[in-house]
Design brief:
By secondary structure, the protein is α/β, with parallel strands linked by helices. The chain has 17 helices and 24 strands.
């Protein structure tokens, strides 16, 4: 990929000139019949001679107020949502400048109309896990798979995730281009409601769209539950002419999405769910035959073929995500035995529920829930499985993100016996008396656990490619604190639950 300029919010490309009339067929043009774009930006002060300035608007800033600066900087065209003075510079008026930004980003820096099949995964919870489970299955089938997710990105030439979560359509466009150039035949992409709110898939033809579930989340961003679900439904606009929708048949809210897709897009629908009356005709379904804190065994049904599958993580959401990934794989004619091997080869997903084994006789799981919806699902599953105590350790910052410490503790108490909110500086060289008291309490609670008990650690995970912990950062992830405590308290042996997995 070649650029003559690359900044945080604007770029020029050597890939050729884009005509806005072709990209925005419903736009209105003033002082011109068309605008040719070779570079664009939404930062007026960064605008350079020859750039197109896009007046993006959000709750914090109105790009229309900065048009005069962009013109003074040498902008050759303005894209706006309303008629505004441009001092003679050609103007293109569109309904949504976020949509225009995304459409232009993908045209200039995204896929080049290649054979890469894009699989877009959205939903209230389970997106990241479903993405990586799907990638594992498709890789097992011999396909060259790339991934873009909150847990990092992997192209066809790499094996270790890198990069940060995608927050901007331009970032997504650049990553898709990278996956294409590395030789990927399939790209599995996690699409959050934040990205959909920015029309991040505008200009992308998705071969498959998968929806894990539709609950309520991120109301601070979207306002209401109905507005949130409306944003989620934007993903249907990205379906290709022969695209397929894969939906969770266990989720009643997804039924509306299915009906809309069949009516408006006349598209094919595959369903997946845990075995019940609603999933009797599902493309992929599963029945749990064993589920303990040590893991779970499912009977997976894929187009009539039944295969046993052992999963390391016992929660119900893990089974549901696995079945959805299986349905996506069926869309690409992956045999049932490869689906089973692909699911079993995934031990954990960075930042999502995973097991921590250091020889202790109680279960320890680590998770960073993206919403209260996913947290409730995990806690209820662990509560049903465990016969002993359920201890929840949560980083202070995460508790605040999920509604505040008091509210978090109140909600968690529905399922757990004890909840500890842990300060960020608990293991810092600059630990305060409050931090030391918190560590003493954590140490006491962990020391009192016995066989059959369960610990759920909720908080940040080390940043991808962040390297070793630096005490000067004054922060150690709670996962690392608990892991260190376990290593000191127990001899390094094969690990809790290892006998079951070996069997």
């Amino acid at each position: 990929m070649t650029h003559s300029r690359d900044t945080a919010s604007g770029f020029q490309s050597n890939e050729g000139v884009q005509k806005l009339s072709e990209l925005f067929p419903d736009a209105s043009f003033f002082a011109c019949s068309d605008i040719e774009c070779q570079g664009f930006t939404d930062q007026a002060t960064q605008c350079r001679p020859g750039d197109v300035f896009i007046a993006r608007c959000d709750d914090n800033d109105d790009g229309h107020e900065h048009i005069s600066i962009a013109v003074a900087q040498g902008a050759v065209g303005i894209v706006a949502e309303r008629m505004v003075p441009t001092h003679g510079v050609p103007l293109c008026v569109v309904a949504d400048t976020f949509w225009a930004w995304s459409r232009l980003a993908h045209a200039m820096e995204g896929l080049r109309g290649s054979s890469v099949r894009v699989i877009a995964v959205t939903g209230t919870s389970g997106k990241t896990s479903t993405v990586w489970l799907t990638a594992s299955i498709l890789s097992e089938a011999g396909l060259r798979v790339g991934v873009v997710s909150d847990a990092g990105c992997v192209d066809a030439l790499s094996s270790v995730p890198e990069g940060d979560p995608i927050t901007d359509p331009r970032q997504l466009a650049c990553w898709l281009r990278r996956l294409e150039e590395s030789g990927c035949s399939h790209a599995v992409v996690e699409v959050s409601s934040q990205l959909l709110a920015k029309h991040a898939l505008a200009g992308v033809d998705c071969d498959t769209i998968a929806v894990t579930n539709l609950g309520s989340a991120h109301l601070d961003l979207h306002g209401t539950a109905s507005a949130y679900r409306a944003v989620k439904e934007r993903i249907l606009q990205a379906a290709s002419a022969d695209g397929v929708l894969v939906a969770n048949s266990d989720d009643p809210r997804s039924q509306r999405l299915i009906e809309r897709y069949q009516t408006e897009c006349n598209g094919r629908v595959l369903t997946a769910g845990l075995q019940n009356t609603a999933t009797a005709s599902a493309t992929a379904s599963a029945t749990a035959v064993e589920r303990t804190l040590a893991g779970q065994t499912l009977l997976l049904r894929c187009d009539g073929v039944v295969m046993p599958v052992s999963l390391d993580v016992p929660v119900t959401s893990s089974a549901r995500n696995s079945v959805l990934a299986a349905a996506i794989a069926i869309r690409y004619r992956v045999p049932a035995e490869k689906i089973a091997r692909g699911l079993e080869s995934v031990r954990s997903v960075a930042g999502r529920i995973s097991r921590c084994d250091r020889g202790q006789d109680f279960a320890v799981f680590v998770d960073r829930p993206s919403s209260g919806h996913s947290l409730a699902s995990t806690l209820s599953s662990l509560r049903r499985l465990g016969h002993g105590r359920l201890l929840v350790l949560v980083e202070e910052t995460l508790a605040e993100q999920l509604g505040g410490q008091e509210r978090f503790a109140s909600r968690a108490s529905r399922w757990c016996d004890t909840t500890l909110v842990v300060p960020r500086g608990i293991a810092s060289e600059k630990a305060t008396n409050r931090d030391l008291r918190a560590y003493a309490l954590l140490d006491r609670e962990l020391s009192q656990l016995h066989a059959g008990d369960c610990v759920l650690v909720l908080g940040s995970v080390p940043q991808i490619n962040s390297g070793p912990f630096d005490p000067e950062d004054d922060f150690m992830p709670l996962e690392a604190v608990v892991n260190g405590w376990l290593e000191l308290a127990h001899e390094p042996v094969a690990g809790w639950g290892a006998d079951r997995r070996a069997a």
